[in-house]
Amino acid sequence: MRDGRQARIHFSGAGQTHRVTCAAVKQNRIQSAGLITALLLTLTMPLCAQQMASPAILSGIVRDGRGAPQAGALVQLLAVRSQNSFDSMMSPAVAFTDNHGRYVFARVLPGEYALHASAALFLPALRDNVRLAAGTRTVINMTLSTLFEASEWLPAERRRADEPGDDWKWTLRSTVNRPLMRLAGHNDALSLSTSASERSMPQTQARVAMTNGDGGFAAGGMHNIFTVDRVLDDGSGVILRADLAAAQGGHPVPPSADLSAGYERRINYNTTARMVTAFSSHPELVNSITPGGMQSMLVESAEQMQLTDALGMDVGAALTGVQIGNNAAVMQPFLKVVVSPMESILVTYRIATARNFQDSEDMNTIDMGTPDAGVAQGHVRIQNGMHQEASLGKRTGRGLVQAAWYHDRIVNPIVNGGGIINTAALMTGNYVADPATDSFRIVGANYHGSGVNLSVNEPLCGALWAILDYSTGTALALQGQPAAMDVATLGEMTLQNAGMSAVRSETATAALRGRIAKTNTHLRAAYRWQPQHTVTAVNPYHAFSDQAYLSFFVRQPLHVHGILPRGTEATVDVTNLLAQGYQPVATDGEGNAIYFAQAERALEAGLSFTF
């Protein structure tokens, strides 16, 4: 065997002799193994072919927080577990969104995946537990948030009865404005596409609203509101608004008017600028200086800058001028800095001087309302202050838990009141009154204080969110009950605090905010409790600070075919429904009480038509 000779085996039988060599045995073994392998391949190839013939398809749209599609966003499909044992060795599948924010993975092995979306100047978004079955088509839309949007864990905007129509139709983060790096030509050269070469068609939307209200300083009666919102061909936005209110009750005065205009555009790749101007005239308001009522002028401007992926800045200022016989003006700047050292951590520092203007998002509605102003010793006073706050937030999935420390210094705080005040008292006291709604404002004493705020914001289902909030701080409160005081004496004592002083206090809020998917109802409801002897808000620069006790806002689309036109909506706006927190302080000489309240009871409802 070792000398190369072949071994021979002889079989004898049936008169025949068989000679089998080792080479023949080896050849037979190879042929048998080949037959077995071919048989296994024959059995498994149909299964593999069936599996590969039915891949899964995954697609969707990537948008920003305002719903604008994002072009050029990077979408990665990360394999977690699938039917292919080699998935852990494979690189993630990669796709880029097109001009409409769409992405697609056309042939994906069935299994479990994670979907990751990212884009410049946005925080990345991750979707876990994406299960793809063979032969199915799955649609998953992703939303990217900026640092500012991520830090807005509690709605800070003030309540407006016609709020939906005044929302700006911002398009500045859409494809018409985002510079986009893309492959061009057969040599895979990179080219930069900007809004100069990709333009959108101008869009115009108009809205008419009619509301009627009971209560609310300078907000009662019938209001006719006209809004025109236009997106220009370069992506800039322009909005015009007019609110004309008919005279209410038996007061023969001209109608009030609130006119405002807003404009926004992107200055460069990472900076957005906004500006709002507003003018209001309310001849129905009565004061001791002039019979001409109150007029005001407001100019606001702000810039939002995304300096890096982890650092953003928001800066702006408001110039407010008020005329009540004589003039007063105040400049109120703000600064907001947001840092995200980790994907789930947000650190925010902000300085604000005006309650209604603390960041660029407060300009989403250009209904500025009546400025916080009053009269003291024959001079106009405008509420002002200094609010400093540092906060730390942690994402919990879609929700956020946040803790903040703040310090406030309030100058010329405006205190709300109600009750029937006779004309003689109005002309001699430090009141600015609205006889149509039996409400008034006076100026309290300056105060300062510090406090903490704890908040939890969690999604309930879909677009509906639950909010729990707790704050400590300082507020003006009544000390004692000056029952023998009359309205004239009360008006003269305004600067001496009228029995009010600053006290330590606390407040707690439970709220729902968002949209109910099945009915498309937009809802914002809150119960904000604080001790009833306080007549100003605890933590006045915080969200819901002007929504004492039980308050809510509801907007409901109405679909009645053939009766109501498309775009018809009903709105209901209620403040302090149960009329809580009323503190009697004087009488009008006829036994009727004059009271202070953190927020008066006010009802407003109406219809709007968008076309």
3D architecture notes:
The chain has 611 residues and is mainly beta. It folds into 3 domains: 9-52; 56-145, Immunoglobulin-like (Sandwich), CATH 2.60.40; 148-610, Porin, CATH 2.40.160. Helix content is 9%, strand content 52%. The longest helix has 32 residues, at 22-53.
Please give a quick description of this structure.
Helices cover 9% and strands 52% of the residues.
Give a quick set of tags describing it.
611 residues; mainly beta; Porin; 18-stranded antiparallel β-barrel; 5 helices; elongated
What helical percentage do the residues reach?
under 10%
Beginning-to-end CA distance, first to last residue: 100 Å
Unreliable spans: 1-26, 43-53, 83-89, 161-200
The coarse overall form would be elongated
Number of domains: 3
CATH class descriptor name of the largest domain: Mainly Beta
Beta-strand fraction estimate: over 45%
Secondary structure layout:
Blueprint lengths: L8 E5 L2 E5 L1 H32 L2 E9 L9 E9 L10 E4 L5 E7 L2 E8 L6 E8 L4 E3 L2 E3 L2 H5 L11 H4 L13 E5 L4 E5 L9 E12 L6 E11 L5 E9 L10 E13 L2 E12 L3 E2 L6 E15 L2 E14 L1 E14 L5 E8 L20 E4 L2 E4 L1 E13 L2 E13 L2 E5 L4 H6 L3 E3 L4 E5 L3 E15 L1 E16 L8 H6 L7 E17 L4 E9 L19 E9 L10 E8 L7 E5 L5 E4 L5 E9 L1
Parallel strand pairs: 3-9, 3-10
Antiparallel strand pairs: 1-2, 3-6, 4-5, 4-7, 7-8, 11-12, 13-14, 13-38, 14-15, 15-16, 16-17, 17-19, 18-28, 19-20, 20-21, 21-22, 22-25, 23-24, 25-26, 26-30, 27-29, 27-37, 28-29, 30-31, 31-32, 32-33, 33-34, 34-35, 35-38, 36-37
